[in-house]
Amino acid sequence: MRYELYYWPSIQGRGEFVRLALEDAGVEYVDVARLLNRRGGGIPALMRFLESRSVGRPPFAPPFLKAGKLLIGQTANILLFLGPRLDLVPKNEASRLWPHQLQLTIADWLAEVHDTHHPISGGLYYEQQKPEAKRRAAEFRAERLPKFLDYFEQILTRNPKRTCYLLGKAFSYVDLSLFQMIAGLRYAFPRAMARLEPAHPKLLAVHDHVRARPRIAAYLSSPRRLPFNQEGIFRHYPELDG
Amino acid sequence: MRYELYYWPSIQGRGEFVRLALEDAGVEYVDVARLLNRRGGGIPALMRFLESRSVGRPPFAPPFLKAGKLLIGQTANILLFLGPRLDLVPKNEASRLWPHQLQLTIADWLAEVHDTHHPISGGLYYEQQKPEAKRRAAEFRAERLPKFLDYFEQILTRNPKRTCYLLGKAFSYVDLSLFQMIAGLRYAFPRAMARLEPAHPKLLAVHDHVRARPRIAAYLSSPRRLPFNQEGIFRHYPELDG
Q1: Which superfamily does CATH assign the domain made up of A3-85 to?
Q2: In the structure, what pLDDT confidence band is assigned to residue A86 with cuts at 50, 70 and 90?
Q3: Does B104 touch chain A if contact means CB atoms closer than 8 Å?
Q4: Taking CB atoms and an 8 Å limit, are A77 and B111 in contact across chains?
Q5: CA distance readout (Å), A169 to A88, A94, A211, B47, B104
Q6: The pLDDT value given to residue B150
Q7: Do B115 and A120 touch (CB under 8 A)?
Q8: Contact (Cβ atoms closer than 8 angstroms) between residue B82 and residue B69
Q9: Would the CB atoms of A123 and B136 count as touching at under 8 Å?
Q10: Distance (Å, rounded) from C-alpha A152 to C-alpha A158?
Q11: Does residue A132 sit at the B interface (CB-CB below 8 Å)?
């Protein structure tokens, strides 16, 4: 199976959670919108699925994954599908609900990160909503960021297996996603994270373990890993970092 | 299997999407936090799972469902689990990804509805974020609400089976959730919806079909159906309705 990932070509964004899973598994995939337009890539390749009326099951937004005839949208849903196929989650159904639940909680967390710089509308520039962003980011740093960090630190603390895997026994795509959250938050909120990190040693252990996995280490130092930037979900605006 | 639903006892909120599935299926369930405190209910019953350190797989927030030994959080994840058990979704895996994808898109939509009245923080009162709410709600009415409505209308339009079911052949929990969205949006944004409804006849057909299903009709006229109110996710503030 050759997977085709469709996502905005210039940002990590939500697509990165899928890229990390595909990279860690070492499977063949095409990041379609990052191919040249004349080679069937670019944003037109992506818009075709969003705009063509002939797509029976259109995604609402990128990322989406083409796997044979299946077209799968919503980041957490893509990982739900890929997990057992990439050996990044236990195979039985009951054991898959829990990592999916964690992934959905990460999705909520990520949406809140996005809204720190776009509290009014994703259709406006940051510069058009700066006072509101400053207020929302302050609430995020003070209330929500610690709440999410504490939650995942607790999951690791309650883990009877004493590993640095969120699921306990087995490494999973949720560990990859948690790595991405920590990396992104460090980029966007370096001061807030510096304050909060000492109380969350187990999260940092997950981050460091993932970063050192051979395929992930190779990916992170390759040109396939886009840098964080001011167009993505994690953005560094010093005025939002308190 | 007797299901136990845990959700805030005074609002429809996210819990309502699970209640509708359980009610339509006609299965036995307990809405635990709506029992009296002295009968093991109330908010303490709910907080126990959120706060006790002995819960191995704690949910981040309500709703969550107890099904035997399983404790399942995140609304869409609960419906992913319940769907095949309540005969509210096709049984094979590939056919379950698509309704789940739609459900996750509804979850995103619902979060945006919530943020129209709480654009800065869920920890502050509406009255503490009114100017921001007015701005966000205007963007929501102008851009996001039509986009979501158009998307689901398109799904129904592309449906080769010409039914009023989102999945085509079979009725599913996504139809129940779409009903809840339309009902809630009519409560919260009656003027905006009156303007938009004529262009979305298929969505209204789903709404009307669901409302007339015998078990749903019985539920809606029972005291088990909480009324919409100003504490829930759908709130009617005339100043946010343009």
Answers
A1: Glutaredoxin (3.40.30.10)
A2: very high
A3: yes
A4: no
A5: 12, 15, 19, 28, 28
A6: 98
A7: no
A8: no
A9: no
A10: 10
A11: yes
E strand or H helix at B5:
strand B3-6
Say yes or no to pLDDT of B204 above 80. Answer: yes
Report how far residue B18's alpha carbon sits from residue A125's, in angstroms, rounded to the nearest whole number.
36
Mean pLDDT score, B199-213: 98
- The answer to whether the beta carbons of residues A236 and A228 sit under 8 Å apart is yes
Partner-chain contact B136 A120, CB within 8 Å = yes
Cβ neighbours of residue B125 closer than 8 Å, sequence gap 6 or more: none
**Intrachain domains A3-85 and A93-213+221-240 with the same fold:** no
Residues of chain A positioned with their CB less than 8 A from the CB of B72: 97, 101
Report the C-alpha gap between A71 and B97 in whole angstroms: 10
Asked whether the bond before B238 is cis by omega within 30 degrees of 0, the reply is no
Q: What CATH number does the domain located at A93-213+221-240 have?
A: 1.20.1050.10
CB spacing of B123 vs A139 below 8 angstroms: yes
- pTM, 2 dp: 0.98
pLDDT above 70 covers a percentage of chain B that reads 100
The answer to whether B51 faces chain A, any CB pair under 8 Å, is no
Q: Does residue B160 surpass a pLDDT of 90?
A: no
pLDDT of residue A161: 81
| Mean pLDDT calculated for residue range A148-159 | 96
Per-residue pLDDT at B120 exceeds 80: yes
Residue-wise pLDDT for A194-241, tens only, equals 999 999 999 999 999 999 999 999 999 999 999 999 999 999 999 999
For the residues A83-111, what does the mean pLDDT come to? 93
**Locus of tokens 């003070």:** A142
Q: Which residues of A touch B60 (CB under 8 A)?
A: 105, 108, 148, 151
Q: What is the pLDDT of residues A4-37, one digit of tens each?
A: 999 999 999 999 999 999 999 999 999 999 999 9
Contact assignment for A98 to B139 by CB distance below 8 Å: no
Domain residues of chain B, as ranges? 3-85, 93-212
Q: Which chain B residue lies closest to A94 (C-alpha atoms)?
A: B70
Residue pairs spanning A and B at CB distance below 8 A: 110
Kindly report the CATH number that applies to the domain delimited by B93-212: 1.20.1050.10
Contact yes or no for B60 and A151 at CB 8 A: yes
Task: Find chain B residues with C-beta within 8 A of A55's C-beta.
Answer: 158
Contact A143 B121 (CB under 8 A): yes
